[in-house]
Write a structure and sequence with these properties.
The protein has about 625 residues and is of the alpha+beta class. About 20% of the residues lie in helices and about 20% in strands.
Length: about 625
């Protein structure tokens, strides 16, 4: 996943979302399938139709609104993208992804590579297109695919996108531990410079057809082989001059991580319609309204909910099918949740759930969840673009198979459910002290909240939550009496051991792989709470041992029920309506799951539309 941050779970897409969260981020549907339809959400249509004729070439400007205090660094390749913004910025280049997927996220054969699964032999065979080339004209080879997997296995930054399912590849663990110089389970069918490789597993990952445990990316070995595996993520060849086999390639990267893309003439597919794309990720959100008034951007990929309105006064919403822009929307493929700090990670990165904290009691965790007034905060500060959620799978169209509507969650009452919180705390042996706070054995239930800055309303939201917890008799204090920026937050939650926080918010953007190992296994870097219960481990194992799509779906729904309703290892809080603002001159924009969307976009004028409703 990717964190919104968001990091992206590889499946943690930025708010806080991490790129790796168990949902591998592959490309979208192939254009050889039935044309997918954009789905409307709320009052927003899923696409924008421009009937005017496109001009030849043209230049497009795109922004993923950022935060000046927490700049995002250009990742170069998907393996090194930890934040949603960094992942999305790679889309014009195709995210160096090998596969296309159908509407449910399953791999199909019409992308840069084909996948053949042999369940009896416990192998997958990856065959690259004969005409698949890097943007320097060199062929994409089987060695490049292996090199990507090796990098995911050894580089610290890339390891965040490494999933537990990869360890089922024969010899991979020995390679990680330095016991072998290569991964024994990878066979080059026609040599390292060939176009085919076969990957052997001790047992096939259950979601292999969704890409789980499958080497799904390629890194140019010929260009990066001399870089140290430990520092490759910061090398100039990655951050300034990466190669691409997608429709566009990097022309330049500025000091603020603004990327200029130009058409990749070595692209295997139909040549892109646009001549160039300039993609911003660190343009400060606070300046976005002014930037739009000057038509600085063609596309705003995510309109921040906090800037949609200021009370009843329109801010970005004034561009909702007006002033030259069309608004489109979709159910965000991600969610936010409240984490509990229950343990630490040992020297090998294995989580151990051993922290001495009242939060080890599931009833206390549930009480914290019920007491939180998420609905009220979302209603006040979400400007209609945030909605509460009950589970850990989004309502995105690609996740319909796995979403469990029967998970109850904790958001039934907008202002929190104090009665349920009281009952659970009393069941756990707590009684209120003279100040109205719950205590047990003479010790008050006091928690430290690691809350992040970034949104203009972040402090107000954190204070509202703390007030709600206080009303329920739970004393909550901010970490070091202040909010922390995204970088500080990341360093704290990813540290092996930090006893200075008890609860924190995390957000994840989903890719395609539907399993949760990348976020919840004992060895997952993004297992922020260090949860390692026998029941959780059994569910993750059962999921990986699923023998059919039906059993896979059943186990993933059981995971949601276990982690949320039964044990409250986390509290799902809200998800977003993801709104884009698209200038009237753009042609081809849609939120439907189509592959290489940027290759299909064009413009109908050399100048941006400055007024009116483009839909009329």
């Amino acid at each position: 996943m990717v964190s919104t941050g968001a990091k992206i779970g590889f499946g943690v897409v930025g708010l806080v979302v991490v790129v790796g969260g168990g949902w591998a981020a592959l490309s979208a549907t192939s254009n050889k399938d039935a044309t997918p339809k954009a789905v409307s959400v709320g009052s927003f249509k899923g696409d924008y139709t421009n009937s005017k004729a496109a001009i030849k070439g043209g230049n497009l400007t795109v922004t993923y609104p950022g935060q000046a205090a927490s700049p995002i660094t250009f990742a170069g390749y998907t393996e090194f993208a930890q934040w949603a913004a960094a992942q999305q910025q790679l889309q014009p280049a195709g995210n160096n992804s090998l596969f296309y997927t159908d509407k449910n996220g399953k791999i199909i054969s019409s992308g840069p590579a084909r996948l053949k699964v042999d369940k009896d032999a416990k192998t997958v065979t990856i065959t690259l297109r004969d005409n698949l080339k890097w943007s320097d004209g060199k062929a994409v080879t089987a060695k490049d695919v292996e090199f990507s997997l090796e990098t995911l296995s050894t580089n610290t930054v890339a390891s965040g996108n490494f999933t537990e399912a990869y360890t089922k590849i024969k010899g991979l663990t020995d390679f990680q531990n330095g016991k072998s110089k290569s991964i024994s389970g990878i066979k080059f069918d026609d040599g390292e410079d060939g176009k085919k490789l076969t990957v052997s597993y001790t047992s096939l990952p259950a979601a292999v057809n969704w890409g789980d445990g499958v080497p799904a990316y390629a890194l140019p070995y010929h260009d990066l082989k001399d870089e140290s595996s430990k520092t490759i993520d910061t090398s100039k060849k990655v951050t300034k001059t990466p190669l691409s086999f997608g429709p566009f390639k990097v022309s330049s990267v500025s000091s603020d991580s603004t990327v200029k893309y130009v058409r990749n003439t070595d692209y295997w597919g139909k040549q892109a319609k646009l001549k160039t794309i300039t993609y911003y990720v660190n343009q400060d959100q606070s300046k976005l309204e002014n930037d739009l008034s000057k038509q600085k951007f063609d596309i705003v990929t995510t309109a921040p909910a906090t800037l949609w309105k200021n009370g009843n006064t329109p801010v970005l919403s004034k561009y909702n099918n007006a002033k030259g822009y069309a608004a489109t929307g979709q159910a965000d493929a991600g969610y936010w949740e409240l984490y509990f700090n229950l343990g630490h990670a040992d020297s090998k990165g294995t989580s151990i759930q051993d922290r001495s904290t009242p939060l080890q009691d599931a009833d206390v965790r549930k009480a914290v969840g019920y007491a939180q007034n998420v609905g009220a905060v979302v209603a006040k500060y979400g400007n209609g673009l945030r909605v509460t959620t009950n589970t850990l799978v989004s309502k995105s169209e690609t996740k319909k198979l796995f979403y469990d509507k029967n998970v109850k969650g904790y958001q039934e009452k907008a202002n929190g459910d104090i009665k349920k919180a009281d009952s659970l705390l009393e069941k756990a042996g707590y009684k209120k002290d003279s100040d109205g706070y719950y205590a047990k054995d003479g010790k008050r239930l006091t928690l430290t909240y690691l809350a992040r800055s970034g949104r203009s309303t972040a402090e107000s939201e954190a204070k509202a939550y703390i007030a709600a917890w206080k009303a329920a008799g739970i004393e909550v204090k901010l970490y070091q009496d202040k909010l922390v920026d995204a970088a500080t937050w990341q360093s704290i939650v990813l540290s092996a051991k930090n006893n200075d926080w008890d609860i924190t918010d995390g957000g994840w953007g989903e890719g395609t792989v539907p399993t949760f190992d990348q976020l919840w296994s004992k060895n997952a870097a993004y297992n922020f709470g260090h949860v390692t219960s026998a029941a959780l481990t059994k569910n993750l194992t059962d999921t990986q041992n699923s023998t059919s799509d039906a059993s896979l779906i059943k186990n993933i729904k059981a995971f949601q029920k276990l982690v949320v309703d039964k044990e409250a290892y986390t509290i799902p809080t809200y998800t977003n309506i993801d709104v884009q603002l698209v200038n009237g001159r753009v042609k081809g924009w849609t939120n439907a799951p189509v592959n290489d969307l940027y290759a299909k976009l064009s413009v109908t004028s050399n100048k941006l539309t400055t007024s009116g409703n483009p839909r009329k």
